Amino acid sequence: MRDRALKDYDHVILWLDYFNKNLKRRQGRKVKRDHAVFDPTVQELVEAAKTAGYQVEDDAVNDAARFPRRSFVKSGYVMLAKKEGVKKSKVIASVAEKLLQKHARQKSGKK
Asked: Which of 4, 98, 103, 110 falls 20 to 30 Å from 33 in CA-CA distance?
């Protein structure tokens, strides 16, 4: 019998595709289009997660992984420890808000 990886119930996986404004919902985007950003990077996602109050360890970041719905494109993800009583949708919403704020600051700084 093969040793299979068991599902990790102690962590939440946040894929870059959840926050990518270029994608449709059926392609993997999980936030509203006006809460998404154009082509986020793994580093931006890590910074947004930290700003939202989550600890991100170096071994919990994978920038070479491929999102299952778009396996032909390298995407990446961040793995966050679950907080008691907080649903994944709330985690996604809080990280999306911080990611959007970061992009808005960068955009206004460039003007």
From this structure: 110
- The model's pLDDT over 49-108, given as tens digits with 9 standing for 90+, comes to 999 999 998 889 998 888 888 888 888 999 999 888 899 999 999 999 999 998 888 777
In a domain, 19, yes or no: yes
**What is the Cα–Cα distance from 96 to 69, expressed in whole angstroms?**
20
Total domains present in the chain: 1
Looking from the CA of 52 toward its CB, the CA atoms found within 13 Å total: 24
What is the pTM assigned to this prediction?
0.85
